[in-house]
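User: Please go through the entry that follows and flag anything odd:
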Amino acid sequence: MPRAPTTPEPVRRARKPDPVATRDNILSVARREFATHGLSGARVDAIAALTHTTKRMIYYYFGSKEGLYLAVLEQAYGDIRAIEQTLDLQNLSPMEAIRRLVEFTFEYQDAHPDFVRLVSIENIHHARYLATSEKIRSLNVPVIESLASILARGRAEGVFHTAADPVDLHLLISALCFFRVSNRYTFGALFDRDLSDPVLRARHRQLAADAIVGLLRGDAAEISPVRSGARRQG
């Protein structure tokens, strides 16, 4: 008895790799590897294994381990700066804009300890790799320009009485938010404070915003005599 004709199996074509998705996946895994182990401790073999690719492919995209590390840094700075651009600070009052920026910086760094670790690691290397990146330099221009505009508006409206350089102000905001993440374990162990506690976290966020706003309003001048008196008594 003749066999009934069978329907041929559909030809399965191999899916072409998506170079953008592959590159993004490598960067995501590399970010965790570098944040955990640093530049010297990170292993390209481990990154290749976790991304189901090869060292050869990684070097094809990034040139070297150092090239991959720099690409991770550029992406890390790009992420925070991109979100800053969505805060619409220029449509807020100067006081509200400053407070919003401080609160955002606090929240972002608290939620992204890997970013803080990457910056700390690059400081160990004296910013050797970051200094070669024009991309990172250009990424930081908008936040400084935005701060300069807010400060100018605040002085024009008579709400800011302290003359502040926008780069100096950016430093202060970063310092108040960064230290809490970079030193959370040592500080917590020394003073028996759990910095992940929601109540303490909310208080620190308000303290950071109040400190920056108070500085720009000139509140520090009002308490300086008390500080001077305390020093004389001590």
Observations:
- The radius of gyration is 25 Å.
